[in-house]
Amino acid sequence: MKRTKIQNSDRELSVEKKKAILEGAMKEFLAQGYAAASMDRIATAAGVSKATVYSHFQDKENLFSALVEQLVQKKFQNIFGCMDSQAFQGEPTIVLRQLATNMLNMAHCDEQFLNFMRLVIGESGRFPVLAQAFISNVEKSAFAKLCHYLASRHELVLSDVEVTARIFIGTLVHFIIIQYMLHGGDILPMERDRLIDNLIKLICDRSKDRESW
Q1: Which one of 38, 58, 78 terminates a domain?
Q2: Are 44 and 67 in the same domain?
Q3: Which of 7, 174, 179, 187 is deepest in the core (most CB within 10 A)?
Q4: In angstroms, how far is the first alpha carbon of the chain from the final one?
Q5: Domain holding 76: CATH number?
Q6: pLDDT per residue over 105-163, tens digit each?
Q7: Cα–Cα distance between 31 and 49 in angstroms, integer?
Q8: Do residues 113 and 78 both lie within one domain?
Q9: Could you give the CA distance from residue 165 to residue 10 in angstroms, rounded to a whole number?
Q10: Ramachandran angles phi, psi of 38, nearest 5°
């Protein structure tokens, strides 16, 4: 029993250290960029030794990938998590509207997430593997789940579920980049509800047209 308690305590301590390291890494990457980020400064910010950082993540690339995975899972949990399995049985117009609203709310209210996306895009030329880590985690969370939902809604009569999912997510990501990340709201103004309304209409009404052929 005593040994089990010690093992549980060590495991909890390891989890806390990992959390502290990821928080320190987020601050360091956003402040310095990927190339200039220092594992020494990350360790200092986390309140752990440099050896502890390496024991958890091996190198800076693995640390960045772990940060991407955690961030994407957390943010897309905010998008999908508030919708239970029963909600995903709802009408496409309702479900897609909720997903779009959740996604844009998340981006608009979280400056850290926007800054991290800027970092990923900015570093993608020199370090493509970083951008690939981001895309891989997005595919696992948002894209796969949306494809599964669209495929289950036979009334949509979609010729290509994956393309439809990309159109849906891509339109929202474009809006986030232009309106929020690049501060283009005054140059290319677009009301959020107008975008969501017409995106849903494009998917759902087009399906009705195909069904009548």
Answers
A1: 58
A2: no
A3: 179
A4: 70
A5: 1.10.357
A6: 988 888 988 999 899 999 999 999 888 988 888 777 778 888 989 999 989 999 999 99
A7: 20
A8: yes
A9: 43
A10: -115, 130
| Whether residues 49 and 69 fall in one domain | no
Residue 54 CA from chain centroid, whole number: 25
Taking the alpha carbons of 37, 41, 43, 47 in that order, is the dihedral positive or negative?
A: negative
64-102: b (≥16 Cβ within 10 Å) or e = bbbbbbbbbeebbebbbeebeeeebeeebeebbbbbbeb
- CA–CA gap between residue 17 and residue 1 (Å, rounded): 24
Does residue 75 share a domain with residue 19? no
CB-CB contact of 26 with 110 (8 Å)? no
Question: Domain containing 80: what range?
Answer: 61-212
User: What's the pTM?
Assistant: 0.80
Q: What is the DSSP letter of 67?
A: H
